[in-house]
Amino acid sequence: MANKTLEGLKDFLLRGNLIELAVAVIMGTTFGAVVTAFTDLLLDIIGKFFGTPNFSQVAVGGVNLGAFLSALFTFLLTGIVIYFFVITPFNRLSDLTKKKDEAPAPPVATSEDLLAEIRDLLKAQADKQS
């Protein structure tokens, strides 16, 4: 019983999909760090433009909106970065591979075409015999 369970666990762990998922999680984590650094860079640029290098200090009427604004800008910038640097290139690459894969298929011979070919072969064979 234990050997069968361990064998099933081994098969599950060594399945290709699990390995690919693990690689995707690791790549996603490291890509998240890159996106976070880029977002921080853009937030610093935006902060210098408005004269406030850190949005966490922004308050309106005594209400501190800075944390919300920082989170909102981070969310929006992360979405923009992912869209333009991941989704758009992936879609372009996908379109290119689809165009290559969608090469025109050779025309399928209809029964009339096959019958005409048989007729021509029989005629050629009859001409050779005569």
UniProtKB/TrEMBL annotation:
Q: Name one GO cellular component term.
A: membrane
Any Pfam family matching the protein: MscL
Record's subcellular location: Membrane
Tell me what topology the record assigns in the membrane: Multi-pass membrane protein
> Which keywords accompany this UniProt record?
Cell membrane, Ion channel, Ion transport, Membrane, Transmembrane, Transmembrane helix, Transport
Q: What is its main location?
A: membrane
The UniProt GO MF terms for this protein read: mechanosensitive monoatomic ion channel activity
Do the record's keywords include Transmembrane helix? Answer: yes
- Indicate yes or no for the key word Cell inner membrane: no
Residue ranges crossing the lipid bilayer per the database entry: 21-43, 63-90
Which PANTHER family does the entry mention? LARGE-CONDUCTANCE MECHANOSENSITIVE CHANNEL, MECHANOSENSITIVE CHANNEL MSCL
The molecule here is called: Large-conductance mechanosensitive channel
What is the species of this protein? Microlunatus phosphovorus (strain ATCC 700054 / DSM 10555 / JCM 9379 / NBRC 101784 / NCIMB 13414 / VKM Ac-1990 / NM-1)
